[in-house]
Predict the structure.
Amino acid sequence: MKKLIALLTAFILMTSVFQFSGVAFAEEKTAITLKQAIEIAKSSLGIDTEGFEFNSSYNEDQNGNNMWNLNWSKSKANNEYIYVSVDANTGEITNVSWWSSYEQPQSKIPKHTKAEALKVAQDLAAKLQGDKFKETRLEEANDDYYSKYADTYLFTFRRVYDGIDVISDHINVQIDKNTLKLRSFDVAWTKGSLPSKSEAFSVLKARQLFKQKLGLELTYSLAYGNQNDEPKVILAYTLKNGNMPIDAVTGEPLNSFIIRPLEAAKDERAVSFSEAVAITPEEQSELDKSSKYITKAEAEQAARQFITIDSKLKLERANLYPGYHKQNASWNLEWIYSDTENNTYRNLSVQIDAVTKEILNFNIYDSTYYQNKQEGSIDKDKAKKLAEEFLKKIQPEKFAKTQYKEYKDQYGFAPINDYNYSFNFVRVENGVPCPSNSLFVGVNKATGEIVSFNTSWLDLDFPSPDKAISLDRAYSILFSKVKYELQYIQHFKNINDYQSRELKLAYVLENMPILIDANNGIMLDYNGKPITPVQKQKYTDIQGNKAEDEINLLIEMGIIAPDSDKFMPDSKILQKDFVMLLMNSLQPEYYILPVAKAEDRYDDYYDEAISRKIITEADKAPEAYVTRQDAAKMIIRAMGYGVIAEKSNMFAASFKDASKLTAAYKGYAVMASEFGIIPAVESNFNPTTQITKGDTAEFIVNYLKCDTSL
């Protein structure tokens, strides 16, 4: 998250500028001329620009950032593009992007280690931004994308002031894994003085303010597995008013630059009915449900009971969709009116429960609302009463079980809508709110018309809250398990105006799921599973082993993930562990879903290995030991050469023990040996010898180094 914020911040700083086309204007105003900027870039980065085309631009923004943007490009032979941004006041290089279309190596193993690249990155950062670099620390990456997938190493040097991280400020450097060349460089650095931590109140006071202004509350939360799972109701303590930083000087909640997660798109597939020769039990089950569904005409009649549908509106679409997560199927109807001559448009979409005839949601869009905006015609209190009166008519029983709560997202921000008021009524069971279930109403500010309605209400069993842990204990668990510490953050006086940002010293709660099981105090993730602290393990039994370097390399690449301090390199490997490591080595072409489909994690690896024809269902023997010929067969199939290896008559095996190879394995053994993946031992292949975990590491590294290009 921090890395993403830093990268996006740098991008905005680059793009939120005023551009001037006149070079003469720029040269009159800047300490660094265009000629000097070119010289600085070429000398600092060692750029040979012979044969390149060149252009430049000059930008300045409201914060006094004046930049020369230099662009070199070469289209002949290997395409190459170089972009450099030079501060027109100080001569500092703040951004570099260096791309060339050189042929990528076929080997998946980088030619250079991360440690080698780090040394290059540090030297570059010190050379280009010496004073700033001295005020940074290397930030440990919290994801392994760049270690696994990218062809570069990414290093983030986070600014530290008075021992406190400045979240918005950084130096990022990307170094090519195979050439150690600079691929990109960017600096984000806030100007001006920073508040002193001596002005900040104590963390104890910060925790008290958190309780008062943000807080936890006992809720019924819903956890979902995959799409077809029924939701699980969890009695848990969750954030009451979002996760916002607290100003460490004033004690007030702050708007900070937070990346909002995108809502998952609904997987809506239309239900269709057709005759079939044979009906399966699953099909019959669907048919039984469909017999309960109301017709389209009945759905339309249900909509008209609560919504005024003007005669000008024409029903354009009608679809019947299945329900998920214990929900019934639903009719989706859409009426449209368009007057191109007067440039007016009205759209009404309605979703109706296909079993109960309840209106689940509707939304009205009318262009006249926005063309003739009349702010203040309906005040918020009156609009809220209109919303409540509507709910009493359309959902009286459900409305009686709700309490009004100002709608805010997980970061404490209320939606901004210049045309409509939004009102959210949260379901309450056993005196405990269930935020995931609610009734939502939108009221037009100008006319008072109900323009949107949504009900999220499932048939659920709610556990008794009688044995829930106390709120005090929940706070104790929160502050012992989740970091709450001082940071310098970007605060936005106006969240719609990026230029209104300023640096604040604040107490910030770590960005992670805040879901405390009220039965036992265990921290849960959004799937309702206990959060296990990530502890990086190191193997203590591989030093001096013949495969030590290969094991460490696979750890660095994320293919091996230590979960204990013992690797046992000389122990025989089970088929299930071999399959897991082999499938991990196929990244990024192959990717295991982070949320396992099965209880046994190995099942996911086997499912993918079988689907890719690396092994067959008949070959599956999780607890069996792997032989050299087994390893050869699986690796060659993983390379996509199984169809060739199966043609055993094409191959002549020159091993001393070739007679021990059956036709089923001969092609695989010869190819694995010729590629240098599983080398012969004293001219013998030893096909039935069981391999060790250390052997496996060597074979996988050999496979990843294998260059199959012509």
About this structure: The first strand starts at residue 18 and ends at 20. The mean pLDDT is 84. The chain has four domains: 2-188, 197-262+465-517, 285-454, 548-705.
